[in-house]
Amino acid sequence: MKSLTLKAPAKVNYRLDVLRRRPDGYHDLRMIMQRIDLCDEITITLSDTSGVRVTCGREGVPDGPENIAWRAANALLALSGQETGIDIAITKNIPVAAGLGGGSSDAATVLLGVNELLGLGLSIERLMEVGVTLGADVPFFVFGKTALAEGIGEVLTAIDAVPPLWLVIVNPNIPVSTAWVYQSLRLTGEWNGDTIPRFFKDVADVCAVLANDLESVTIERYPVIGEIKERLVAAGAAGALMSGSGPTVFGLFASEEEARGAAQSIANSFDWFVVAVRALV
Fold it and tell me: Which residue in 40, 137, 213, 229 is the catalytic one?
């Protein structure tokens, strides 16, 4: 029986600009997206029993067709025209509804894995096209590189020059609905047209672009996010920002030693999810 076990990495947003609301209800965005080595584990197995089955066992993560990973596998199975079955087991390590893209990464990883197991030979570009029908962040995880993301997140340009970075990820164990955050966002006007560099030589360069238009919405409801930012800076972070729609906050560090020390200090004092991770190239 053919099987694959793959890692599905989380992401953070170094930048998240909401440019405008689109007629279709989505928003045009401009983001710098970075994968990190906090990963779910996905095991995909071909089965003689037709259809797709997903198991996770994590609260807040559905096991059936409501799971985005199920929809990813089903989409490729339909494209293949094959009668085989697909069993997917997800081990969740990424906090749920946290602004870290865990569900989107799971879906992208399933697209890549099923493409390989079924021998479909679909290109990355084609898998990204399938991915955007599942969720706006899915193409980024299929792309697999640090990127400038535009449109609703599906127009991707690789950012090749990013220094080795360590991050401390802090989640206050509060789920936040992405849909609620965007519905609550009050756009103040048109984007001012400033440019984002494509080259970052050190942690200071990355800190210089840190911004998230969604922060004001989520912090207003959950002030603990602001507290976490302050704690990270006090622990030595060169910069700190909420990721995505939150509530996860990350702090940037130039070295593993600094990051692990800060993570330990915060974890000792608060009942939050805290982990030191490295940025993936």
Answer: 137
